[in-house]
Amino acid sequence: MNSSIQQILSPAWLAPVVPEDTVLTGHSLVIEDERIRTILPRNEAVANYPNVPEIKLDRHLLTPGFINVHGHAAMTLLRGLADDREMMDWLTNWIWPIEGQLVDEQFVYDGTRLAALEMIMSGTTCAADLYFFPEAAARAFTDMHFRAQVSMPVVQFENAWARNEEDHIHKGLAFRDSIKNSPLISTAFAPHAPYSVSDKGFEKIGLYAEQLDLPIHLHLHETATEIEDAVRDTGMRPIARMNMLGILSPALQAVHMTQLRDDEIELLVTHGVQIAHCPESNMKLASGLCRVQDLRQNSINVALGTDGAASNNDLDMIQEVRSAALLSKVTSGDATSLSAFECLKMMTLDGARYLGREEDLGSLEAGKIADLTAIDLSAPVFQPLYNPVSQLIYAATGRDVTDVWINGHQLLKGRQPQMIDSASVEAATAGWQARISEAVT
Ligand SMILES: [Zn+2]
Fold this sequence. Notes:
By secondary structure, this protein is of the alpha/beta class. The protein has helices spanning 42-48, 87-102, 105-121, 134-143, 165-178, 199-212, 224-234, 238-244, 262-271, 279-284, 292-297, 317-332, 340-346, 349-354, 388-395, 422-440; strands at residues 5-14, 24-25, 27-32, 35-41, 54-64, 66-71, 124-129, 147-150, 152-154, 185-186, 189-191, 216-220, 252-256, 274-277, 302-304, 372-376, 401-406, 409-413, 416-417. Helices cover 39% and strands 22% of the residues.
């Protein structure tokens, strides 16, 4: 008997993701420190680990924690502020002026804590984030005990965090040094978009990313207008330009990827590019469609992101994956596209692969990190219950999540946040609501 073992979890159903299309009943998962020690029949777990506390989850489905592969956590403070506008109107007349006026370290710290609280309470245990002041975002995620890839942002224009491209890269590298030993925070280069970073900037980022073995996180082919403007200004489509600059590789996390031609999909296959699909943001801003079915049929990894709460408006991965499933079926004309089990894999293991973390995250297997989510399936909306994974994807929302573990620590227990000062997050949010309301009137 190993005295460091912390918990036995005994759910009604356990969907490990590996092996695929599997739901186990009568099984327990044993957490030891930050990792999954084993998964075995409950009677064996109780017999083999007699002094370990058992958490019974009699009405619950236990899954890997959800992985949100694209977002702007701090922008949660702008949620619902300028809805129902064209994307460039939304960005240039609302989001960017407000950001210019108000964004500082405290804005990023408080907004990121609010986003982390929302994500934990809806079953997400890891997110890829992109915003200014990454050191404040990393501090917020760390204080919330939340796992994140916090990017080093790069844009050409001056903002509150950095003066120009060079300064962004310089500050980003200093940020990278500061989080080197963090168990929860990793980083990536994040050139914002092809239209906001120069050729020289991309070349530098490509070089550093290769040398330092870092991913590159990039908004790419978000809208038809972006592509038309690029053809007008550079003579080529953004993907062709990224190819010319050597940016296409398995380390590229390409976000949105609408308006793809067949030859561009071939290019993505050749270079093993990772895709972030953000269906609700793409629909809300009328950005366009991502050919998820075609990408997946070509063995391209497509993971799932909510994008920022200013364009979604929530960070609920269960609702997001349902949107992905329904959109894929209607756009492909194929009702078998993105099945419930494929959706669960998309929001867990495919996300881990996108982040280069599939050895550690994304499935319930012995030796992997204990990032876990339990969903209560006892409400009438889930009855009768023939397939718990179908109920999760097609009937649940993030509000049905009751229990969450990150790095072996239970952060949500019966819907109550643990180890987290949620009252101070709410107070800070109220303060920002007052300041932002005043700024826009
Ligand atoms: Zn985005």
